[in-house]
Amino acid sequence: MKTQDRLDLIKQVGEEIIQEEELKKLLESGEELIAYDGFEPSGQIHIAQGIVRAINVNKMIKARVRFKMWIADWHALTNNKMGGDLNKLKIVAKYFIEVWKASGMDLSKVEFLWASDMVRDSDYWQLVIRVGMTNKLARFIRTAEFMGREESTEQLTAAQIIYPCMQIADIFKLGAKITQLGMDQRKVNMLAREIGPQLGYWKPVVVSHHMLMGLGKPPSADSDRATRTVKNKMSKSNPDNAIFMTDTTEDIERKINKAYCLEGDIKENPVLEYYKYIVFESFEKLGISEVKIERPEKFGGNISFKTYSDLEKTFAEKKVHPMDLKVVLIKYLDQLIEP
């Protein structure tokens, strides 16, 4: 595969790449490239963590990048996930892996590594401390979105302050030249680029994937990009704001029917996002070659779309009604999530 083809695949994953020229040089170097993503095993898994994550990882693998999935059970411990019970966290992590398998992630080419194994290494903790020594506390606190935190940083515990130091140390211990996490992790990844050379390591290339929106009305545009991403993304604390991998047909129907979808509005529209990042990426799994909307002649008759851009353009022209999209989306999501 040519360098440009590999780069194009990774650009499909990265809503933002810092820096693209650095990534191109890595691809041209001929060295084995390692990318990593970390996840906290924390209860329910929603569709962005399940299906969208599988789609993105498979694209990275196709681009001939070695992918390491970091099971951040100790990081979840600092966040008191699952009541801070490591045994429960391990069970949930294994459940996540089974969901990815069912979602079509090519597990034969993904290496799963556990933080609970890494923490036995004293060199790891030495690196965590060295990372922590590079900056004042306030600098690390400013990366609070690394945990998807929306509340005041004054509510952070001392254990949670260790988290960004661990996350940055993870990158270098895993040998990851590419960090492939969500836009909500941008601040801590940028700090890793700053700290790496100070400690004799590299500047990791940051490939930040898009964070699928929650189903509700988006917040007003009054914050920077990273903070807005956190506010806008799906939240497990609001079950009706996300589609979960265990949702029933009735759950999906209820949630999508009341999802925010202003007619003709293509900006921050969660229903359109589901089409762009899930449906049009899942044609093979759905057994379709186009999105087909069936409707009576008096409402415009049947209409089909082979690309997302065509659907978006037609919706912007108000030639497709939000309910047209919702009815078909419910069917496709139910099919994708069906056990």
From TrEMBL:
GO terms for molecular function: ATP binding; tyrosine-tRNA ligase activity. Its EC number is 6.1.1.1. It comes from the Bacteria. The keyword Ligase applies. It catalyses: tRNA(Tyr) + L-tyrosine + ATP = L-tyrosyl-tRNA(Tyr) + AMP + diphosphate + H(+). It holds the Pfam family tRNA-synt_1b. PANTHER family: TYROSINE--TRNA LIGASE, CYTOPLASMIC, TYROSINE-TRNA LIGASE. Belongs to the class-I aminoacyl-tRNA synthetase family. This is tyrosine--tRNA ligase.
